[in-house]
Amino acid sequence: MDPTGLTELRRQARAADELPRWAERSWEVLRQLGALRWAVPAAYGGDGLGGSVLLERYEALAGACLTSCFLLSQRDAACRRLVDSASEWVRRELFPRLATGEGFLTVGLAQLTTSRQYGKPAVTARADGDAFILNGTVPWVTGAPRAEHIVTGAVLDDGTQIVAALPMSLAGVTVGASLELIALQGSMTAEVRLDGVRLGRNWLLAGPAAQVMHSGRGGTGGLETSCLAFGLAGAALGHLREESAARPDLVGDAEKLDHALHALRQQMYQQAAGAAALDPQGLRTRANSLVLRATQAALVASKGTGFLRSHPAQRWARQALFFLVWSCPRPVAAAALASFTEQVCP
After folding, report:
1. Where are the domains of the chain?
2. For 233, which of 109, 110, 267, 291 could close a Cys bridge (C-beta 3.0–4.6 Å)?
3. Band of residue 133 on the pLDDT scale cut at 50, 70, 90
4. pLDDT tens digit string along 231-244?
């Protein structure tokens, strides 16, 4: 990957994190790096990358600018849903524009996986001839104001679920104001409200089926999420190593964290290559712990200077908190809570 592009992403990283606007320059750098083609199949103008190659590239991007890589990861998660679907029509309709960067696709599926799982479904659907009528609120849609389509899901009266590519131009679709997040403001994450939206069955990607998200790829707690955590941890540890060059008291801590990162990265790439039994949620639990520790270590090593808004250490520490809530399955959340309480409670 072109190091000049990564340097430019680092230069833009503070603005992309802090400003509640589309990170135009950072997204253009991703396009120049060829990142918008990576997850698009070759048959539609993309590179069709996957496995370890794609993870390595995500990791490098996350280390340079987590906000930009997060935006890309959400678009690519939506792309994987298209690849796994039975709809060749949808693929031909969307992929060519995605490969060139002319269009933007994102994903809004948290309501079927980790968000608003108590009470009534956040988004409902009812069959109406050759269409579904959608109502409700999609709670987390990254890049919503920029999106032409979102891959989203809904629950039918009988409890079965559907996943579909939703054109944002349909009547009844409203994008809310960007949510005020403590980090990654440039991700432009917002709610999308659906009021009697008539969605043709030609946009259907999966279902109706029980637990439709259990099919295909891109489920919660996957390797891609852990990969982004490793990229952010690597950036923080790079700073810690720089500090330790002049402060010998930090060398041991830097080496321990480096060893942990190396071991977990090796496990991730072994799983991606099929050389190890797949346990993405177990890896995610350990990745969350590492990114929290590594970023806080960088903040501690930076002392008061690291608490300034101009210093990247505070940004890394804030961004690390995101992994506690982003697509965080219950077992991963429970493990995090257990680790917090066991450290201070007798």
Report:
1. 3-105, 106-214, 223-336
2. 291
3. very high
4. 999 999 999 999 99
Answer whether residue 171 shows pLDDT above 70. Answer: yes
Residue pointed to by tokens 């797949």: 278
Amino acid at 44: Y
CA-based nearest residue to 324, from 294, 270, 284:
284
Name the residue among 69, 134, 135, 148 with its Cα closest to residue 106: 148
Q: How far is CA 67 from CA 73, 136, 342, in A?
A: 10, 27, 32
**Cis ω before 331 (30° cut-off from 0):** no
Q: Which two tokens mark 240?
A: 């810690």
**CA–CA separation, 128 vs 198, rounded Å?**
9
Closest CA to 74 of 163, 187, 176, 175: 187
In which residue are the tokens 């891959």 written? Answer: 151
CB neighbour class for 300 (10 Å; exposed up to 12, middle 13-18, buried from 19): middle
Give the residues across from 127 on adjacent strands. 132
Residue with tokens 């990358």: 49
Bridge-based pairing of strands 173-178 and 149-155 is: unpaired
Helix, strand counts (H, E) of the chain: 11, 8
- CB-CB contact of 268 with 210 (8 Å): no
Tens digits of residue pLDDT in 291-334: 999 999 999 999 999 999 999 999 999 999 999 998 777 888 88
User: Is CATH 1.20.1250.20 what the domain over 223-336 is classified as, yes or no?
Assistant: no
